[in-house]
Amino acid sequence: MARINWNEPRFDKEDLKEVIEVIETSYVNEGPKTKELEEKFREYLGVKHVIFTTNATAALFLALKADAIIRGIKDFEVIVPDMTMIATATAVSWAGGKVVLADVEKDRMTIDPEEIKKKISPKTTAILPVHIIGRAPDMAALQRIAQENNLTIIEDAAGALGSKNRDGRFLGTIGKVGCFSLQSNKLVTCGQGGVIVTDDDQYYEAIRRLRDFGRLSNKEFLHEEVGYNLKFNDLSAALALSQFRKLEERKELMVSQRNQYESELKSIEKIAFPRTDLNFGEIPLWVEIFAEERDELIEYLKASEIYARPCWPAIHRNPPYRNQGNNEDYPNASSISDNVLWLPNGPAISPEQITFISNKIKEFYNREKPPIKLEKIHEDKRGSIHLVEDLLPSDKEFTFLEINKGYARGGCLHSNDEHLVVVKGKIRFICGEEETIVGMGESARIPANRAHAFIALEDSVVSEWGITSEEKNHDAKDPQLRALLDEINESQNF
C-alpha cells in the first residue's frame, strides 16, 4: 500500500474553477469573493459580524488586542489551556499580554474550569478556551466565571468549524469573539486563513481597524491608530468558498472515520479515545487516541508507510513559557503530551486504509516482545549504570542507574529533553537551579541543555531515557554542580 500521510487536504475541479475565475479577473486583493465568503459564514454561524484575516493566530491576536484597547489597559493576563498548539499562547504574547497556563481535563483535553479559578488575578482580563479538535470545555461554567470576574471569553475555535456546544450553539459563537482557522488540515481550507466572528459592534469595529492599518471606515487614507496589514485576499477566498460547500459532507466523514477507528480498535485495552459528544454535534476534526508505548507505535507504523503524529508538547514545555511551571503543575496536559497520538484521517483517507492502519495497530500490541536485555556499562562504589538494549529505536537511549544511599551522579547536559522515573527508593533531583524530591513511581522531566544530577536519599534505581546525543559523553559538565557532586561523593570516602 502507498504511503499514508497523517492528514492531507483534498482539492477538486470545482476548487480549481473558483480560483481560475479570480485570476482571470485580475482582482486578487480582498474584494467581492471575500465579501461573499463573509456572508456565507455569517449565515451559517448565525452571527452579526465576520472578518477574515491571514491566519487564526492573527485572528486571536486581533481579538486580544481589541479587548485591551477597549478596556484601556496595557498590563494584562490571559488564561490559556496548557494543552494546545503554541499559537494560542503566541497570540497573547503578540498582543502584549502575559500568558497564564491552566491544566486541562484529561478525558476531554479541554481547559478545566476549576483550574481557571485558581489562576485569576487582578490583572486577568480574558479566558482563551480552546475547542481542541472540535471538543468544547464546559462553556456554561466558563461564562459564569467570566461574568463573576469581568473577563472576556475569546474562543480559539481554530479546529472546530461546524462543531456544536451541548446547548446547540456553534462553537466560536458563545464568547465575545470566536476565531477559526482555514489552515491546510482543517475541514475548510485555503492553505492559510483566519476567521473572526462577533455579535459585538464595538469589538467588530476595533478589530476591523486594527486589521487594516488602523484605517477609519469612511476615510480611505485616514488612520486613527497604529494598525496592521492582516487582510485576506480573493484568491484564498475563492478556494475557501468552494471548500465551504463541502463542509457538511466532510463533517459526516469525520464522524464516520472516528466511529470506524473506535469500532476496529475497541478490543485493544492499551488504547483509549478522548470523550467526544458526537450526539450533541461535536465534530472530531482529527482522530486521537491515548496509546501506551506511543512513540514505539509511531515508529512501528512508519515501517509500514503509515505516518501518525504525536500530540503537541504541553505549552509549559516550550522554552518561551517554561517559567510557568513543571509537569507536576499540569499533570493532565503532561500526560496527554506523552501519550496522545493522532491517526491518519481526513478527506484523503479511505475506509480500507483505516482498516489497514487499525490492523497494524492491533499487530503492534499483540506482538511478542523480546526479553529486555541490560548491558552493564559502568560500576563503582556509587552504584552501577545499565544500558537497555534493543528496546527503543536506534536514535534513543534508555538507562537504569543504581545509586547507593548518600552518593550522587550527574553534572551533565543533554542536547535534547529527557525523562526519568524513580523505579526504587528516593532521590534529590537537581536540575539547573531547581531541586525536587522524587520518590518511587514518580517522574520528572530533564529539559535540554540544563545541568542535572541525582543524589540518592536511600538506595535507589532511576530510569532515564531520551534522544541520544554526543553531549552524553561527559564532555559537557556544569563546573559548579560537578564540584557539589564531588564533595558529596568524597564525603562517602569514595
Write a structural description.
By secondary structure, this protein is an alpha+beta fold. Strand 2, helix 4 (87-94) and strand 3 form a beta-alpha-beta unit. Helix 3 packs parallel to helix 4 and helix 3 (56-71) packs across helix 7 (201-211). The strands form four sheets. A seven-stranded mixed sheet has the order 1-7-6-5-4-2-3, sandwiched between helices. A six-stranded antiparallel sheet has the order 12-13-14-21-16-19, with no helix packed on it. The protein folds into three domains: 13-244, Aspartate Aminotransferase, domain 2 (3-Layer(aba) Sandwich); 247-366, Aspartate Aminotransferase, domain 1 (Alpha-Beta Complex); 373-490, Jelly Rolls, CATH 2.60.120. It contains 13 helices and 21 strands. The N and C termini lie far apart (60 Å). It is globular and about 85 Å long.
Index terms:
Aspartate Aminotransferase, domain 1; single chain; 32% helix; seven-stranded mixed beta sheet; Aspartate Aminotransferase, domain 2; alpha+beta; 494 residues; Jelly Rolls
- Unreliable sequence segments: none
Structural class computed from helices and strand pairing:
alpha+beta
Average pLDDT, all residues? 91
Summed up, the domain count is 3
Tally of individual helices: 13
**In percent, how helical is the residue content?**
25-40%
What name does the CATH topology of the largest domain carry?
Answer: Aspartate Aminotransferase, domain 2
By CATH's scheme, which homologous superfamily of the largest domain applies?
A: Type I PLP-dependent aspartate aminotransferase-like (Major domain)
**Which of globular, elongated, flat, extended, rod-shaped describes the shape?**
globular
Q: Quick one: biggest sheet?
A: 7 strands, mixed
Q: Tell how many strands the DSSP assignment holds.
A: 21
Strand content: 15-25%
CATH architecture of the largest domain: 3-Layer(aba) Sandwich
The CATH class of the largest domain is Alpha Beta
Radius of gyration: 26 Å
Strand order, biggest sheet? 1-7-6-5-4-2-3
What is the CA–CA distance across the termini? Answer: 60 Å
